[in-house]
Fold this protein.
Amino acid sequence: MRLWLTIVVWAACALFMLSLAFLPIDARTQLVTTFVVLLVVVVMKHLQLEGPGRLVLLALGTSIVLRYVYWRTTSTLPPTNQLSNFIPGLLVYLAEMYSVFMLFVSLFVVSMPLPPTRPVAVPAEDDLPTVDIFVPTYNEDEALLANTLAAARNIDYPAEKMTVWLLDDGSTEQKRNSKNMLDAKAAEARHASLQRLAEQLGVRYLTRSRNEHAKAGNLNNGLQHSTGDLVAVFDADHAPTRDFLKKTVGYFNEDKRLFLVQTPHFFINPDPIERNLNTFGHSPSENEMFYGIIQRGLDKWNAAFFCGSAAVLRREALNEANGFSGLSITEDCETALELHSRGWNSIYVDTPLIAGLQPGTFASFIGQRSRWAQGMMQIMRFRFPVFKRGLSLGQRLCYMSSTMFWLFPFPRMMFLLAPLFYLFFNLEIFTASGGEFMAYTLSYMVVNLLIQNYLFGSFRWPWVSELYEYVQSIHLFPALISVMLNPRKPTFKVTAKDESIAESRLSEISAPFFLVFLVLVVGVLLTIYRLYAEPYKFDVTLVVGGWNLLNLVLAGAALGAVAERGERQSSRRVEVNRKGTITIGDTVYPAMVTDVSVNGASLQVFTKEPTDLRAEANAALRFEAHGRLEDDPLPVNIRHVQQDGAILTIGCRFLADSILHHKLIADLMFANSQQWVQFQQSRRTNPGVIGGTLRFLKIALEQTFRGLHYLLRFGTPAAEIKKTRKAVQR
Amino acid sequence: MKILSTTLLLLGLSTAACAQSTPFDMTPEGASPAAKVATSPVPVAPVAPETAPLRRYVLQSPTLRLQGENPLKGWTFIATPEQASSEATFDLGYRNAIVVAPEASRLTVVVNETPIIAQELRGGEFNQHLAVKLPAGILKPGVNRVRFQVEQRHRTDCTQESTYDLWTDIDAAQTYFSFQSPAAGTFARLEDLAAIGPDTEGRSHFRIVAPSFAGREAAPVLLKLAQGLSLASASPNLSFSIASTLPATSSAGEIVVIVGTPDDLAGLNLPSNSKPLSITPFKDGSALVVSATDWHGIEAAIESLLAASASRKSDGAAFQTSRWRMTDTPMVERGGKLTLAELGVPSEEFFGRRFSTEFSVGLPGDFYANNYGTATLMLDAAYAQSVLPGSNLNVIVNGNLATTMPITSAGGAVLKQYPIRITMRHFRPGVNTIAFEGLLKTAEDIVCAPGATMEHKSRFALFNTSELVIPPFAKLSLGPNLATTASFGFRNQTQPGVTAVLLGRTDEPTLSLAATALGKLALAAGRPLAIDVVPSLDRAAGVNTLAFGTVGTLPPETTADIDYTLPQASATAERATGGADAQAWNDKVSSSLVGSAFAGAARWAKNTFNLDLAAFSIWPGRQAPLRLPETAGLFVSQSVNPATKTLHTTIAAPTEASLETGIAAIGDQRNWDAIDGRASFLDMSKDRMESAPAAGRTVLALEVASFSNLRLVLTNWLSGNFTVYAMAMIVAATLLGLSTHALLSKLGRRNDD
């Protein structure tokens, strides 16, 4: 009863707002109103209001957006009898309306995100459910798998209740019997070595006869051979922390209809764009907006979805839906959608409990995003969530938001092209005066930036969304067209995670970015020419030229994003703080491990005496393990030593030759979830709209020149591609 | 044909000053443009002065200025059957700017679609006079149409600015029909009252002679008569005088109306007549006599006069403006489309640099969209390849530039239903004049080779399939609104009923003023107002009132909205010559960088959005009385009694002298049409009406109570009171935010789950 009353009151307020915003008031009133509203929004934003204030701020922003929508719809479309203006004008209009629609849907999603974690009682040892841990693999190398499996085995959970499974799709019978002799031999060798690895680590090895239904099929094969109550899934590069299960399984006891506990995908290395722009470590990663806010917002509506890894699922629920769905190439989201529609619940826990690897190259990054975008399109096509039976209204909206988000390349390309219609072809696709543009469009853009910064400020800095969307759009646009024309065509491609860029070069798919940049530069030149030559349309040229300039800034930053920066280290170091000792000969020195990678570590030894610790010497490293490991040393080879007063800084390489050594490395590197939390928190600051914009401009300017410099240095983008390993594709 | 252009006819009555012959002839041999005249006028022999024929003047103002490259003015006039059948000549006196190139210019006078004069402009600064004999049958009994059209080109200058220097002034006193038949000067029928015609100043005048006008019964009857005469003649620029004695002479543009009981008229030596309405010879012409045994009888006679000119105006009908402009003005009652053809604009091809045309559109008395509304001109036009981008198309509404739209593409184009948005800020109830202007730049004009201005290459064409689209607009009757009163004579503005009329004094000037104003109001309303002459306003509660007089003779409440106390002469002098000038100081102080940035922003806001930051107020304020300047003469003011929703209108003057000059002035159509806002006054120094807008207005009626109209009414009000809109938006957002929070807290998972 009370709920109905609230709904009626809300509907009345919404109607009031709509009828007020949709009055055809004059531009003067618009200007004053948006000025006043923006002022209030800025003040409220600085007060960092939460609770009701948060919704009031969002409603104020909404009012400006609604004003813009009304004006844009009623006053700015070119007349229909000028088709050359009207058609592109309509396309830009539709692109904008899509953006507005997505804004409202995402406002719904993140209107009241749940807190990052909810307290849960860890069940008593006897009540703990049995868990099967699946690590599906296709082509990842053994060392990577060894770390992940060792970390999985190191999870703090009763050994008899936890089984780790290596689900190997890289050496199926189909692969081993390949007609290509080399492939068959490689699969045979992989089969043998992974079996041995599994045995040494105490992991069950499983493969199957045919590679059907890709990852979903592989997981389903695992389901058929296992019996645990719960199933945890880790991608081959996702090494879990020791407390992974302790922090997740408790929820399943509390809610019998819970099918999923998802945790964030935390990455210890930068994605290619972060690496190329050199922003990793200084600003939040691109995926933090999704895992930091959006999943929590989805969780409010019981719509947090499975992201393929770093999650625990209930076998009973999976069995009901006949396992993981494999209709689309994003089996994870599809499975969650199916189970949500069957009345199962999900929970999102916002604590990084795995550490994963980002794709190594820009091309594989784009490959990964293409899979997501195409898969989401397939879900839209095959399982249109809006009309899916069994979903709540909130879930429908949430899934619509999650899938339709991936249509962004269409508006992004429209916004890229729109100013060019005018600058190159003199088409007038947006009929408005300079003054109206100021009163409506500019205020709309400003309020967008303010809302974005208010909602996602410390998770996503200003203009980063725009850059990532632009960078992806160039290649996702054709991919989307392809999946729309032929929805069953895309197949699951495993994203290569272990490539690295040894030497600086241009990405092999960077050519279009330079082309677009060139076109936009011509657009800027045309703008300048027109400002002088055609003073009678100064205001329109200024506005359109400004828009084009904004595109150019993005396109310039993108040149940096596709100019692959070479890295000396092949694996990423993470900062740790672990006490230990280093033994050389018979001398034991107390040491502190300060950073670590899967290949080596840095130590600090406090000593004033001369030591035997010198480059090329072999030593033994011991440290306090988090897990229950034997007190065995990790053999290391010292690479360099530097004395700085009383502090001796030592860089060393691990000489891992046994499974135990992999376990030690995994413990040293992956066991502690707190270090991931701290790392994330250190980057989560909010520079504000102005600070963020200035910072972005600086990056864009630098990266434009870096990109152009690479072009001059390395010539054509496709030449001289050096990969440490080629991604094997199915 | 050469003869026509060189032969000037010196008419006996012409004054020496205007009877000059052409000082020189620049027409190339054999290239007279007069060859195109359809009906060849024949030179008329000079007429002896003693047989002075009747002159029927034509113009609506002392001079008719035809400015620009293609100006066109025209209107209709009424001829009596006697005039139509009489042998007639047409005289034309004009001057034109010296910079007009004669060989490239052309003056055309068209009567009833027959060109009677078509020739080069050759006057220069000297007055030109020419006369042509009208071919028989050109004039018709009843409505006739006359049109003055000039095509003029600058001798040397190719700029658009120079087109403003191109003018031809037609002189009212020198421009007339003269009729040979003596009967043409008399009239025989009541309908012939409409043929009153203008005088040499373009004004028409009814001289009411009522020896006993001061009697208690006389005033209401005489005022009713004035309304009847106004309706019967339907003349623009019409004024009345009420006097007790006959004038010494009769003159053009004037009809004498003699009113009284037989006793009153006994001393006037009139032929005896038993009919209450009769026409009698008077001096050179005729006079109308209204006579009965008592004033009731006279009133009955006036009723029959009114019946003859029974209401010709109904709601939604066109404004009958063709007597002083090209066409009648169609009424847009609730929004709609009108093609330029319907608005009387011809399709036209244009060769010059500044194309200009004009049309008018009528809006209802409760038009209420000037804060937000936008009309659209769907333009069908073409411009030639020679026209450069940067040329402009302008729309000017009631003298205010409403839209400037640059032509942005080179190479010529045919525009089909090309939308030009026109702000409705300058629209108002009644007749609105919309001018369309095309400022055309070409490369040739930039070079401006000798003779370039004479080129006859087509640059622009306007097709009258173009449409003026007025969207459905807000309708709300508000008062005070003098524009509505002047255009509709209280029709639809308030409840119909008797209007109480208060006369400051029952003397000749006050009665004449009341008669003139009521004549105007009756014409605007299309029917006479029911009036009740009251001795004081105390008796007039609950009805509309009209007060006439000088400030001193009227009760103070009638002039409460006007501050007519004249400032001290010394104080004014000080302000003009020295002392501290706040504006100058403002300018000085704001010349700093920040200051000028703010000033620049303020100027930009004013120009772009009509946003006056200096006049910024949080809530609509109440208005102070309007302070009249020293130069103010007659004024009109209006206030509303919010309780009874009645309108109280005062037409008065500060002094007796200004009252007397104001009578004819307020009768002038151009002044009457300029009445607007809550108060208007005649600025004697500028010879035009100035108006003060109403700040706080009272709702009189909401005739269309539909949702869509209410929404638009709200829109207009909020657009005028933008701070209220801004606050309302914040309130709405706050409510929405709070209710959304309440709703979302109940839906989905709770934060404390």
User: Anything to note?
Assistant: Chain B touches chain A through 54 residues (CB under 8 Å). Residues 1-50, 567-579 of chain B have pLDDT under 50 and may be disordered. DSSP finds 15 helices and 36 strands in chain B.
